[in-house]
Amino acid sequence: MVIISHLFYGSIDWLGWLGVQIFFVISGYIISAGFLREEMHFSDISLSGFYVRRAFRILPPLALYVAVIVALASTEAVPAHSMRAAYSLLFVCDLRNANCGGWLGAHTWSLSVEEQFYAVIPILFIWLGSKRRAALTLSAFSMPIFVIVLFFFKFTETAKFLSQFLAIGWGVACALNESTVQKIISRMPSGSLGMLILAILLVASQSGSRFATILNAIALSPLLVFLLMRTLTTPSLLSRILSSAPFASLGLASYSLYLWQQLAVWPAVAHGNLVLAIAALSVCVVFCFASYFLFERPFIRRGRKLAATMRVHF
Fold it and tell me: 262 falls in which pLDDT band (50, 70, 90)?
């Protein structure tokens, strides 16, 4: 969805934004479910282990991408201001007036949101203990109201910043209340998947008015949670497609693809040549698989081993 919106730059931005919101819900769910499994297995959550695994997963591919962009900018193969993509390593590209290199670094705003959220949520998981389910679920429900109040009282920038975390927060709440959500899903009619998708598309495509802002804040993330759990727990054409070998394989290279597609589709943005961008994107997919197996996976393994060692010795 993100790539399609980039290929048709400016005309369907809402589609790419929706793709990111889906990713945020999945991310919040997966990370939190991982914490719960770790606690069940080890009786605690290793904060240092989490951050070590996270650093070895996120930083090496990002550093490689930034290094290539800076090198290209230094030779004027891409605009010189693209060097500011290096600021993405600080995870600040979602902040107001952040300049992270224009087109070639702007997409890292979503990575910044994710890492800022995960600088806080593991600490809350540990600190809240047995109260985390009630506290974080209440936060997921109340945060949209808080964001809307800020919008109405003209604290627009603060509201925009906090609204970035709504979908991840609902993903966390979903993991903490998975059995309850599954019970609700089991009672939904057989045609509910299509209705969910239609409702999500209608909500996401609305923008501009106060009503659209309220609708987006309140309705979109819960709808995405139900779509996620409906797809995971109930057989459907969509779930069969998403769990097929090609899509599962593509998931391995998804982080690299997220990073490098911005450079691959850049010709379409810079020169309006859609055919060239699609050809470059095809090469990008091959490169991303190579990146995963030859570059990323060794770092992932090292991070896991180091995290396991830290759990034993610290």
Answer: very high
Cβ neighbours of 133 (radius 10 Å): 14
| Angle subtended by helix axes 297-313 and 47-74, to nearest 10 | 150
pTM score: 0.93
| CA–CA separation, 124 and 107 (whole Å) | 28
- Is pLDDT of 25 > 90? yes
- Model confidence band, residue 189 (pLDDT cutoffs 50, 70, 90): confident
* 150 neighbors 9 (Cβ within 8 angstroms): no
pLDDT digits (tens, 9 = 90+) for 244-255: 999 989 999 999
